[in-house]
């Protein structure tokens, strides 16, 4: 087993002058930074008094799952001789709120993969399962991550 470590810095930017003196008295804005990377502006979902113009943790989890699947899929494609020429995804997630907390109950990835040749289409469809099994993020969550892939052939 090989361990990998990750680090970043998070700074809350929401003190309006009275700190957390009341639920409506502070902003949920945060700044995420990491060496050598652009800053990422975060907040809460607007439902929870956050800034809709900033990324919220729920969106970041969805993005992490989609990006991880993409990267695992591209690796599997190379291993199976599938030439991918385009890939996009429009994932969706569902979160159930229970009291003040809650949890994700499901995520569905909807990757659209374009391959170079029609002879690659069946394998391109099949390797989504392998990519899912190899995705570190999907293996780390406690809810199902479903896949509804579409495979297209380049003109």
Provide structural commentary.
The protein is built from two helices and nine strands, in the order βββαββββαββ. With 155 residues, the chain is an alpha/beta fold. The strands form three sheets. The chain has a three-stranded antiparallel beta sheet, with no helix packed on it. A three-stranded mixed beta sheet has the order 4-7-9, covered by helices on one side. α1 packs across α2. The termini are far apart. It is elongated and about 65 Å long.
State the major sheet.
3 strands, antiparallel
Shape: elongated
As residue ranges, the low-confidence spans are none
| Rounded Rg | 19 Å
Subunit arrangement of the protein:
single chain
Beta strand %: 25-35%
**Number of contiguous helices:** 2
Ends distance: 43 Å
Helix content estimate: 10-25%
Structural classification? alpha/beta
Query: Taking all residues together, what is the mean pLDDT?
Result: 94
DSSP strand count: 9
The ordered H/E elements are: EEEHEEEEHEE
Major sheet: arrangement of strands: 1-2-3
List the defining traits of the structure above.
155 residues; alpha/beta; three-stranded antiparallel beta sheet; three-stranded mixed beta sheet; 2 helices; elongated
Report a brief summary of the structure.
This protein has helices spanning 57-79, 121-134, and strands spanning 9-12, 30-33, 40-42, 84-88, 92-98, 101-109, 112-115, 145-147, 150-153. It is of the alpha/beta class and 155 residues long.
């Amino acid at each position: 087993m090989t361990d990998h470590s990750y680090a970043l810095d998070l700074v809350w930017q929401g003190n309006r002058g009275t700190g957390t003196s009341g639920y409506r008295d502070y902003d949920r804005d945060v700044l995420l930074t990491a060496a050598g990377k652009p800053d990422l502006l975060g907040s809460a979902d607007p439902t929870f008094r956050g800034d809709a113009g900033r990324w919220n943790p729920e969106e970041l989890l969805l993005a992490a799952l989609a990006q991880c699947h993409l990267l695992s899929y591209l690796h599997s494609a190379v291993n199976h001789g599938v030439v991918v020429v385009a890939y996009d995804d429009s994932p969706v997630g569902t979160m159930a709120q229970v009291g003040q907390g809650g949890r994700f109950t499901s995520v569905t990835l909807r990757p659209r993969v374009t391959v170079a040749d029609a002879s690659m289409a069946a394998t391109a469809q099949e390797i989504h399962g392998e990519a899912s099994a190899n995705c570190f993020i999907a293996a780390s969550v406690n809810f199902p991550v479903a896949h509804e892939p579409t495979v297209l052939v380049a003109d």
